[in-house]
């Protein structure tokens, strides 16, 4: 057996531009617009996330939690001169949306670890956590549709294309609304955390259309005719 591993060098420098939405109220749409501007620019942005004020307040990075504001974060990486130039250009561009600040290497790395690990929802273990993949421009509309009927919290990664939702405990984890809102924009939803009794009733993965489900069943039956390999692990009856 041979394994080929491609290894890329760690970036020399990492910095993050913060857009600080100081006014009260929701800023999800504005955050998505700022991330879109950054990601479609020529400045080689490597990550973009938006944290509403309640979520940002839980950050271990003082420059984030201390603002008492919603935060949009945009990351650039690479050689130091290039990072410094692109960071300044992004601050000039994004400063048209709201005041901006800059995180250097240590604080920048800490912030993106939090986003990666979804640490903002780690302590409220009773909350039911969903991971939604949607078109970025649809993110705020999908989240607000769900939160209108299911109290909870949200933050956005992947420029708005990845939504993390933490909903207050519910017998069905808000599944009907979550699935409908996500499917309406061509996305999908995965239930990441819920009590065991909820997980036995609610499918973890987005249900497949009947035509695709039929193909899935036939493929599974082809290489597992006796149904011994994790039956029902991903889809009921498969």
Q: Which features does this protein show?
A:
9 helices, alpha+beta, 4-stranded antiparallel beta sheet, globular, Alpha-Beta Plaits, 2 domains, 238 residues
By secondary-structure content and strand pairing, the structural class works out as alpha+beta
**Succession of helices and strands:** EHEHHEHEHEHEEHEHH
Unreliable stretches (pLDDT < 50, length at least 5) are none
CATH architecture of the largest domain: 2-Layer Sandwich
| CA distance, first residue to last residue | 31 Å
Shape: globular
Please write out the topology:
Elements: E1 13-21, H1 28-39, E2 45-51, H2 53-56, H3 62-65, E3 70-78, H4 80-94, E4 100-103, H5 105-117, E5 128-133, H6 139-149, E6 152-157, E7 162-167, H7 175-183, E8 188-193, H8 196-199, H9 210-223
Antiparallel strand pairs: 1-3, 1-4, 2-3, 5-7, 5-8, 6-7
In short:
36% of the residues lie in helices and 22% in strands.
Question: What do you see in this structure?
Answer:
- The chain has about 240 residues and is of the alpha+beta class.
- It folds into 2 domains: about 15-115, Alpha-Beta Plaits; about 125-200, BMC (bacterial microcompartment) domain (Alpha-Beta Plaits, 2-Layer Sandwich).
- Helices cover about 35% and strands about 20% of the residues.
- It is built from 9 helices and 8 strands.
- It has helices at about 30-40, 55, 60-65, 80-95, 105-115, 140-150, 175-185, 195-200, 210-225, and strands at about 15-20, 45-50, 70-80, 100-105, 130-135, 150-155, 160-165, 190-195.
- It has a 4-stranded antiparallel beta sheet. Strands 6-7-5-8 form a 4-stranded antiparallel beta sheet, with helices on one face.
- A hairpin with a 4-residue loop joins strand 6 (about 150-155) and strand 7 (about 160-165).
- The longest helix has 15 residues, at about 80-95.
- The protein is globular, with a radius of gyration of 20 Å.
- The relative contact order is 0.13.
């Amino acid at each position: 057996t041979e394994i080929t591993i491609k290894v890329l060098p760690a970036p020399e420098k990492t910095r993050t531009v913060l857009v600080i939405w100081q006014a009260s109220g929701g800023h999800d749409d504005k955050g998505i617009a700022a991330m879109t501007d950054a990601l479609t620019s020529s400045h080689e942005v490597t990550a973009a996330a938006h944290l509403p004020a309640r979520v940002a307040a839980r950050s271990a990075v003082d420059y984030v939690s201390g603002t008492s504001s919603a935060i949009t974060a945009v990351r650039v990486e690479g050689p130091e001169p290039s990072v410094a130039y692109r960071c300044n250009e992004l601050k000039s561009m994004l400063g048209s949306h709201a005041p901006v600040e800059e995180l250097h290497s240590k604080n920048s790395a800490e912030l993106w670890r939090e986003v990666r690990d979804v640490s903002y929802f780690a302590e409220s273990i009773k909350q039911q956590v969903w991971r939604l993949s949607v078109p970025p421009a649809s993110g705020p509309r999908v989240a607000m549709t769900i939160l209108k009927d299911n109290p909870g919290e949200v933050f956005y990664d992947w420029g708005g294309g990845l939504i993390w939702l933490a909903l207050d405990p519910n017998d069905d984890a808000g599944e009907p609304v979550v699935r409908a809102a996500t499917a309406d924009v061509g996305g999908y939803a995965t239930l990441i955390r819920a009590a065991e009794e909820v997980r036995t009733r609610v499918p973890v993965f987005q249900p497949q259309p009947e035509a695709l489900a039929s193909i899935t069943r036939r493929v599974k039956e082809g290489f597992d005719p006796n149904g011994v390999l994790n039956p029902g692990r991903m889809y009921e009856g498969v």
